[in-house]
Amino acid sequence: MEVVWQYTALSIFLIFITLKFLSKKGRNLPPSPFPALPIIGHLHLLKPPLYRTFYNLSQKYGPIISLQFGNRLVVVVSSPSAVEECFTKNDVVFANRPRFLVGKYLGYNYTNMIGSPYGDHWRNLRRLGSV
């Protein structure tokens, strides 16, 4: 009988932790389609041709949409004015690359040209590569 209470307490604890990590409170994200599957996210919504799928989603949810592709968050921008704002005013924010563990361990702690974040080090590497 004691084992049942221990497993019940453990399962409630794990459910609580999972819900805490999966909740999206506090994240100021654009709207997204509701049925995001646990592992693949919104990949089940994509059908060829992709531009029609994105067009239909933008007609339904607005010009800026957030989608979950696996464990990565993707923001789709389909309005020309929003694209202009993203690539002129906030270009440094969108210039960085995602940080994977491969870049940390095989890319010498993000110091090679492919994995380093945008900044002085990356500009120096780019100059060196062009010479």
UniProtKB/TrEMBL annotation:
- Pfam families for the chain: p450
Name the InterPro entries for this protein: Cyt_P450, Cyt_P450_E_grp-I, Cyt_P450_sf, Plant_Cytochrome_P450_Monoox
Where do the TM regions start and end? 6-22
Q: Which SUPFAM superfamilies match?
A: Cytochrome P450
This entry's Gene Ontology molecular function terms read: metal ion binding; monooxygenase activity
Q: Which UniProt keywords apply?
A: Heme, Iron, Membrane, Metal-binding, Monooxygenase, Oxidoreductase, Transmembrane, Transmembrane helix
Q: What is this protein called?
A: Cytochrome P450
Ranked from the top, the taxonomy reads: Eukaryota, Viridiplantae, Streptophyta, Embryophyta, Tracheophyta
